[in-house]
Amino acid sequence: MTQTEVVLSGLRFPEGARWRDGLLWFSDMHTGQVFRTDPRTYEPTEVTTVPDQPSGLGWLPDGSMLISCMLDRKVVRLWPDGSRSTHADLSALTDSPVNDLVVDGRGRTFLGGFGYDLYGDAPQRPGPIFRIDADGTVACVEDDMVFPNGSVILPGTNTLVVAETWAARLTAFDVTDAGDLVDKRTWAELPEGSTPDGICADASGGVWASSIATAQFIRVEAGGRVTDVIQLDDGRCATDCVTDGAGTTLYLLTSNSWQPSETEVRQGRIETVRLD
Predict the structure, then answer these.
(1) pLDDT higher for 235 or 34?
(2) Domain layout of the chain by residue ranges
(3) What is the CA radius of gyration of the chain?
(4) Above 70 in pLDDT, residue 1?
């Protein structure tokens, strides 16, 4: 079993892990807080608080931070001067929560949606992917995903990879110059029973996927070859992951549960492993 080191604890449901400017950024979905932390001390600094479950984080070219507000079905923009505004309101386009997001180099955001009321035990329906242009204009660019979740644009490419949680797979698209998603394909099938949530790419072209229900972090290559599995030893939820700028440390975000009613005990934490 891979040994992990706990570097930050006392959270509820950490999500949205990103590495930027030498700092680790993340949201705590069940408190509404967004944090950053310096890996030299791991003291968390609150960046902002938003209602309705903040999840995915990203940045526009001007340095503004974008935050997906899941239950409110909005993307909030935190400007460099600290002011805040609504970047996009998707409440007229979907009646279910929005999810994780990724921002490309042109300031276009790709945002997944549940497609149905997971928290209300509604029947499953296909989920959408929305594109939000830098000016806040929204378009639905895909409407047939099985719970689109974590997403990443592979470094040096125009390939968008999205985790389909209930399908146990990572699905890829090419992003055109116009921002359309084309050539939909399976990038990797994950082991049976996997439930990929947050994902991140590494410098070698692989993708790490957090499998929330199996308490695993799985590294997979295009085509489905699994190269590494980190198994959490206490059955925790594996929620998200990200590598540092050097690609030598993998941050693992974990919690005792995904249910808000069960995370008030604040057993969410951030752990690390060294990558060879």
Answers:
(1) 34
(2) 5-274
(3) 17
(4) no
Tokens standing for residue 167: 């399908």
φ, ψ (nearest 5 deg) of residue 180: -80, 155
Tens digits of residue pLDDT in 167-223:
999 999 999 999 999 999 999 999 999 999 999 999 899 999 999 999 999 999 999
109: how many CB neighbours lie within 10 A of its CB?
25
Say whether pLDDT at 121 is over 90: no
Whole-model pTM: value is 0.96
Superfamily of domain 5-274: TolB, C-terminal domain (2.120.10.30)
The set of residues, in sequence order, having a beta carbon less than 8 Å from that of 259 and lying 6+ positions away, is none
Structure token pair of residue 120:
């209300």
**Are residues 252 and 241 in contact, defined by beta-carbon separation less than 8 angstroms?**
yes
Q: Which tokens is 67 given?
A: 């935050």
Q: For residue 93, what pLDDT band results from cuts at 50, 70 and 90?
A: very high
